[in-house]
User: Which sequence fits this backbone?
């Protein structure tokens, strides 16, 4: 029995059109808050955060007519649960634009849950450079924070229980476009 056998889809929270609208709204909010996009860099957390960051950059280009640099961040070595993992971690590396020092970095991820992934990403960013500021954009905020981390931009707030799971599927990775909530089944 594999791990997904213990979960079943409860509800689709965002379909393709709703995801597109949420990302367009986040792009507008980023532009408004930063009074344009000068000195801004989007950095996606591997894996799905990278594709969301690229989509945000596309929308910003459509709105502002200017490109925004996009980087990729691999937080594998910064995770605080590495000692709990049994297999060797797969390290894919980070790739950020020339420098993030003195830039406004918008860190992008798919789902914000406990805040531990974001904490690891902050550590990774600080090892790369010293940004002017770091803002956080997430497609879904599901609550249950264990650390004092709050997103600046949210596509959708979804109150969940700890027995639920949010699954973001993107065409680039999953050949499907949706955000769903899954519940644990009793079959084990």
Assistant:
């Amino acid at each position: 029995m594999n791990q997904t056998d213990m979960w079943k889809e409860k509800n689709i929270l965002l379909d393709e059109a709703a995801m597109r609208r949420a990302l367009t709204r986040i792009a507008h909010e980023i532009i408004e808050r930063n009074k344009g996009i000068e000195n801004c860099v989007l950095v996606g957390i591997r894996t799905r955060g990278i594709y969301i960051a690229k989509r945000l950059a596309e929308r910003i280009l459509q709105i502002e007519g200017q490109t925004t640099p996009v980087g990729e961040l691999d937080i594998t070595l910064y995770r605080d649960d590495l000692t709990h993992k049994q297999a060797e971690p797969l390290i894919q590396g980070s790739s950020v634009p020339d420098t993030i020092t003195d830039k406004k970095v918008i860190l992008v991820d798919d789902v914000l849950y406990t805040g531990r992934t974001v904490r690891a990403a902050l550590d990774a960013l600080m090892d790369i450079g010293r940004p002017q500021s770091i803002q956080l954009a997430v497609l879904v905020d599901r609550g249950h924070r264990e650390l004092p981390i709050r997103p600046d931009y949210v596509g959708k707030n979804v109150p969940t229980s700890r027995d639920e799971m949010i699954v973001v599927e993107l065409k680039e990775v999953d050949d499907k476009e949706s955000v769903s909530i899954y519940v644990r089944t009793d079959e084990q």
Remarks:
- The longest strand covers residues 104-112.
